[in-house]
């Protein structure tokens, strides 16, 4: 899967993973089902996006010579916050698909974290095309934040991590989960610190690295659930007074 599909799919995996029973792996059927859905939705989104942006993409240097890839250009730009709201819908649907209902104490902070994450990688992505965006009149968070991008990204990071911690607390997550959240924090800190918003190649590299960030968090969720079995075994093995 390409980066956009992964970024659509990963919040689904987080939610499905958190819904797993203690000591158990996530529902593999649900993971496969949502993975297929992400592929289909991404493909449909790119097709519609090509139709909407055909006039803009001709004016953008990065896509003018690559019409096949043109669908990637503004899917991460105009109305970015609204895009974040829809792009992370899987954080609500994954849990509901497994559990049969939505636990808002878990799903809302996870969903909020996903939206903040989208604002982070979307803003980084948008810096690739900011000069062309000015020419064609497309608005983006890159143009909005400009030289204040890094403080904004840092604020989004703090908000994202807060949501992840709350979601983990409300699902009784264990050490591996919080280690993964810590690794996510370090990844984002390094990503923001080293980001060169004036180099398109660096922006793309940082944007693409978010797939690994999402996979790392999913791994932490899985291991955190498996660790719950060890915790329960330790409790039952304690001598009673």
TrEMBL record:
Bilayer topology term: Multi-pass membrane protein
Coiled coil start-end: none
Keywords: Membrane, Transferase, Transmembrane, Transmembrane helix
Subcellular location: Membrane
Cofactor(s) required for function per UniProt: Mg(2+)
Gene3D superfamilies per the UniProt record, alphabetical: UbiA prenyltransferase
Molecular function (Gene Ontology), one example: transferase activity, transferring alkyl or aryl (other than methyl) groups
Transmembrane segments: 73-92, 98-120, 152-169, 175-195, 207-227
Gene Ontology terms: cellular component: mitochondrial inner membrane
PROSITE patterns named among the record's database cross-references: UBIA
GO biological process: ubiquinone biosynthetic process
PANTHER family, A to Z: 4-HYDROXYBENZOATE POLYPRENYLTRANSFERASE, MITOCHONDRIAL, PRENYLTRANSFERASES
Stated family: Belongs to the UbiA prenyltransferase family.
Protein name according to UniProt: Uncharacterized protein
Organism encoding this protein: Hemibagrus guttatus
